[in-house]
Amino acid sequence: MKKIYVIKIGGNIIDDEEKLAAFLKSFATQSIANNGGLVLVHGGGKLATRLAEQMGIEQQLVDGRRITDAETLKIVTMVYAGYINKNIVAQLQANGCNAIGLSGADGNVILAHKRTAKGDVDYGFAGDINEVNTDLLKALLEQQMTVVLAPITHDKKGQLLNTNADTIAQETAKALSAVYDVSLIYSFEKSGVLLDANDDSTVIPAIDPSSFRELKAQQKIFAGMIPKLDNAFAALDSGVKKVIIGKAELLEQLINGESGTTISNE
Amino acid sequence: MKKIYVIKIGGNIIDDEEKLAAFLKSFATQSIANNGGLVLVHGGGKLATRLAEQMGIEQQLVDGRRITDAETLKIVTMVYAGYINKNIVAQLQANGCNAIGLSGADGNVILAHKRTAKGDVDYGFAGDINEVNTDLLKALLEQQMTVVLAPITHDKKGQLLNTNADTIAQETAKALSAVYDVSLIYSFEKSGVLLDANDDSTVIPAIDPSSFRELKAQQKIFAGMIPKLDNAFAALDSGVKKVIIGKAELLEQLINGESGTTISNE
After folding, report:
1. Chain B residues near residue A80 by CB distance under 8 angstroms
2. Do A106 and B100 touch (CB under 8 A)?
3. Which residues contact B128 (CB under 8 A, 6 or more apart)?
4. Could you count the other beta carbons within 10 Å of the beta carbon of residue A196?
5. Residue A55: which of B55, B99, B103 has the nearest Cβ?
6. What's the pLDDT tens digit per position in A65-87?
7. All structural domains of chain B with their residue ranges
8. What global pTM score does this model have?
9. Whose CB among A91, A126, A234, B182 lies 3.0–4.6 Å from A115's, allowing a Cys bridge?
10. Which residue among A80, A90, A160 places its CB closest to the CB of B105?
């Protein structure tokens, strides 16, 4: 069974031109070594916020989440599916990696629905995923292409929707698990799941369901990591082989299991 | 041999939400009737100019052509490959047409190079096309998908380039002619090539090389149309079966040869 790696890169890499270039070079090398089979999911970083400021559009945040009004949707569509996605694709192509950039609307790859308002909070054009359609993804992966997914989906009624990139990575990994041996990699600024959030040397190399229960009971894991780990175990329960969390700069080592935290059911 | 229609839509449709929605509905119907096999090439309309104004970026024009400096390239990438391309794809999907939006960087579909400066005029990040790679296009068309091309290309060295949409349509039609029976349709605000530029009822229904020579000799064609017609004949000489110029609102009639001007070598 072909090995597929679904790799999410965080905003801190997107925002740093040099780090992004280095990451994409390494990503291209890994993709070529694996005969394709890599899927890159990117978020948006601070570019959308900066563009909104430049355009004089005020951003509304509720509990740290941006409310996607019509103007904000326009901005994130331009920045995520346009500027960031196409620049990533062009850089991967320059590194010999045959990349293709898609939003969820393209080929109906990710079907979503507009998030329903909760009490007083209307999240606007935020999308929750219904389904990842793997037909086109499979066809592209079989042609050894690398797919680059922007965090914009659609409702198949003509509405684009702003969708969380972590969730896109997770749902894409789950859907592809029906046909492939899928690893899901969340790369970010830290070296993995840490015992001490301020000390990068305290990475926990492996977590399984029983050690996760223990770590939670002993309150050894930074509270902010717990939803990420809950999601990781949910992905494993849906067929994903392993979830790896670690530093984007160490992509090769993450893929080879030599760095970061590997979460598995075994 | 499968019939393929490469259809360019002009800025006047892009700029008008209602006209665009009506066009895309008709386009989807035609695409479904043809079992896929439609390629849509869109320009940018006035959105990019408006966004630049909103961001306080001054546009430089030389002989009516926009100079693509780094900031302008960022804007056209966002607007063309992001906002316009993804909204067109989402609307086609809503109309039951399995569309996928691509820039020239995606799958290395359109390889270009930065236009060399002419005398004092440096066009900046404007791209002239080297080659349209049909492998991915063929694979998508064989899967009955509809391809939507944004006028952004790349040089395979990591640089995105702003590229004329008419030229993208023409080069794509020429490249696909190696394997398909290709018609190239330029849809715009007029009913076709007119004898009197101000009278839409003076459409010339058909032009062949000898009638084109005559019309030029008698100065019966509006001078602005001559480069378009020269390009049309160049496309025919490269294997395109026919070129049709006419009104976007009458897409079905253009495809069926019941409206517009049909340019052919016969």
Report:
1. 82
2. yes
3. B112, B113, B115, B163, B167
4. 10
5. B55
6. 778 999 999 999 999 999 999 99
7. 3-263
8. 0.96
9. A126
10. A90
Q: Could you say which DSSP state residue B95 is in?
A: T
**Alpha-carbon distance A95 to nearest alpha carbon in chain B (angstroms):** 8
Q: Which segments in chain B show pLDDT lower than 50?
A: none
Across the interface, of B80, B83, B86, the residue whose CB is closest to A105 is B86
Chunk chain A into consecutive blocks of 10 residues (it has 266) and report each block's average pLDDT, rounded to whole numbers.
93 91 97 94 89 85 80 95 98 98 98 88 91 96 96 98 96 97 94 90 95 91 85 95 95 95 93
Residue pair A39/A6 in contact by the 8 Å Cβ criterion: yes
CA distance A17 to B248: 41
| CA dist., res. B26 & res. B187, Å (int) | 13
Q: Looking at the domain B3-263, which fold is it? A: Carbamate kinase (3.40.1160)
Q: Which two tokens stand for residue A214?
A: 């223990």
Test A82 with B87 for CB contact under 8 angstroms. no
* Contact call for residues B115 and B126 (beta carbons, < 8 A): yes
Sorted by sequence, the CB contacts under 8 Å of residue A173 that are 6+ apart come out as: A6, A182, A183, A184, A235, A240
What residue of B is the nearest CA neighbor of A51?
Answer: B55
Instruction: Check if the beta carbon of residue B137 is closer than 8 Å to that of residue B172.
Output: yes
- Give yes or no for a contact between B132 and B178, defined as CB atoms under 8 angstroms apart: no
Size of interface A-B (CB pairs under 8 A): 124
Are B56 and A56 in contact (CB < 8 Å)? no
Give the one of A86, A93, A145 whose C-beta lies nearest to B81's C-beta. A86
Q: Scanning every residue of chain B, which has its alpha carbon at the shortest distance from the alpha carbon of A156?
A: B94
State whether B154 and A79 contact (CB < 8 Å). no
Which 3-state string (H, E, C) describes chain A?
A: CCEEEEEEECHHHHCCHHHHHHHHHHHHHHHHHCCCCEEEEECCCCHHHHHHHHCCCCCCEECCEECECHHHHHHHHHHHHHHHHHHHHHHHHHCCCCEEEECCCHHHCEEEEECCCECCECCECEEEEEEECHHHHHHHHHCCCEEEECCEEECCCCCEEECCHHHHHHHHHHHHCCCCEEEEEEEECCCCCECCCCCHHHECCEECHHHHHHHHHCCCCCCCHHHHHHHHHHHHHCCCCEEEEEEHHHHHHHHCCCCCEEECCC
Give the chain A residue nearest B153 (alpha carbons): A90
Chain A partners of B90 at a C-beta cutoff of 8 Å? 105, 154, 158-160
| Chain A residues within 8 A of B156 when measuring between CB atoms | 93-94
